[in-house]
Design goal:
- This protein is of the alpha+beta class.
- A hairpin with a 2-residue loop joins β9 and β10.
- α8 packs parallel to α10.
- Bound molecules: flavin-adenine dinucleotide.
- Flavin-adenine dinucleotide binds next to β1 and α12.
């Protein structure tokens, strides 16, 4: 019996599994120890065209639906790997695709699809604003044919390994806008050029974290960004970023599902094989039940992820479903992580089992890209009609 019963995109799933077979636990473990970037894996995914899955064929991509991209990321994570080194490209390019003009699409999308340009960095979070994105303080002031950008971003993942960055900056002071969502703009920053030279306008500093995530802080001083790199209309950038968030949530949720599956498989296998008191530990209900519960949670979350993706593809509103998918999937993967670590006893803490690495990785998704509290606040306000809490 296929306990996860996926019937969608069997060829893609099989091909991704075959690719990931070349990047086993020892590959990820070595990188994790050094906090190194999985260059070979990202190159292989790019070469196989998976990172261009959502780019329309007219711009050199495969033009696949979002559910195909979820299948790709789910399989990467089910295999024990991690798509975080490159998953952003799947959704950040959506900002250009949906809101960029034709010249911008022609300029960047075919290059991204071909793997010649990387759009992996997404500069929204800032040290002082946190989740309150509308309070960000990085400014972009228009002077002639360019914007002059000053400020600081934090948690800008993959900035060291990306050619381009989607940057959200304030173009009109908060006090001067009619509606609070206005006054922010999206610029595409040529990161490679901006970080060159003796006194570069952009300085990227890695942040060492509990997981291998290539995340950084980015300092920006007097960076000149040509006006032709403005996406859409000036002042409407927050709307464009929000537009991309449903896809982001659904894709991250699919990674969480993959993690949950990996933990469940790993825990079940170990529980059958490990013998204590003369019998398999999996014979004890105290060991079985947390794994079975995590399986039930993962299956339920799978339904929500599939539902959110279907609505997204049908062009229907899916904010609530995308948020619930991400919340439920991240909680299912965490429940699975807990059961897997506990099932392994002391060995769960040993690097060579990969459980502790995946455990650290799985925890992230209850905080980023949006924390569970903010999802609950969204549901309370927008679905249940409760008063706004912040
Ligand atoms: C490894 C990593 C990679 C990341 N990559 C990126 C990236 O590439 N690009 C990017 O822009 N950002 C990135 N982020 C940032 C991430 O999106 C934020 O960390 C996340 O949105 C939470 O913001 P914060 O850390 O500022 O927490 P804060 O906003 O300071 O919140 C702290 C805690 O308070 C809670 N809280 C805050 N306000 C409320 C409220 N009103 N009601 C209830 N609870 C509340 C939150 O839920 C959270 O648990 C990354 C973060 C990490 C850790």
């Amino acid at each position: 019996m296929n306990k996860f019963e996926d019937q969608d995109f069997p060829e893609i799933r099989e091909a991704v599994r075959a690719l990931c077979a070349d990047y086993q636990g020892d590959y990820w473990r070595d990188l994790d120890r050094e906090r190194a970037y999985p260059q070979a894996f990202v190159d292989a995914l790019t070469k196989a065209g998976y990172l261009a899955a959502l780019i329309p064929e007219a711009y050199g991509g495969s033009g696949l639906p979002l559910s195909a991209a979820t299948a790709i990321l789910e399989e990467v994570h089910t295999s024990g790997g991690n798509g975080a080194a490159c998953h952003a490209q799947m959704y950040t390019m959506g900002t250009i695709l949906r809101h960029g003009n034709e010249a911008q699409k022609q300029r960047w999308l075919p290059e991204i699809a071909a793997g010649r340009l990387r759009l992996q960095a997404f500069g929204v979070s800032e040290p002082t604003s946190g989740t309150d994105t509308l309070s960000l303080t990085t400014t972009a002031r228009r002077t002639g044919d360019h914007y002059l950008v000053n400020g600081q971003k934090v948690w800008t993942s993959r900035a060291e390994y990306s050619d381009l960055m989607i940057l959200l900056a304030r173009t009109t002071p908060k006090a001067d806008v009619a509606r609070k969502g206005e006054g922010l703009s999206v610029l595409v920053v040529d990161l490679k050029a901006a970080t060159q030279g003796e006194k570069p306008p952009v300085v990227v500093r890695p942040i060492r974290t509990m997981l291998n995530h290539a995340t950084t802080e980015v300092f920006i001083s007097d960076l000149r960004v040509p006006v032709e790199n403005l996406i859409g209309e000036e002042g409407r950038g927050f709307r464009y970023i929000l537009d991309g968030m449903n896809a982001e949530r659904i894709l991250i949720a699919s990674e969480c599902l993959g993690d949950a599956r990996w933990f469940i498989e790993k825990a079940s296998a170990y529980a059958k094989e490990r013998r204590v008191f003369g019998r398999a530990i999996g014979q004890n209900q105290g060991v079985q039940f947390p794994i079975a519960r995590a399986y039930a949670q993962a299956q339920a979350a799978t339904l929500m992820v599939r539902q959110a993706a279907a609505l997204f593809e049908a062009g229907q509103p899916c904010g609530a479903e995308a948020n619930m998918a991400k919340m439920l999937a991240s909680e299912a993967s965490w429940a699975a992580a807990e059961s897997c670590l506990q099932t392994h006893g002391g060995y769960g803490f040993a690097e060579e089992y990969d459980v502790e690495r995946k455990y650290r990785e799985a925890r992230l998704y209850q905080v980023a890209p949006i924390s569970t509290n903010l999802i609950l606040a969204y549901l309370a306000e927008h679905v249940l009609g409760l008063p706004r809490s912040y």
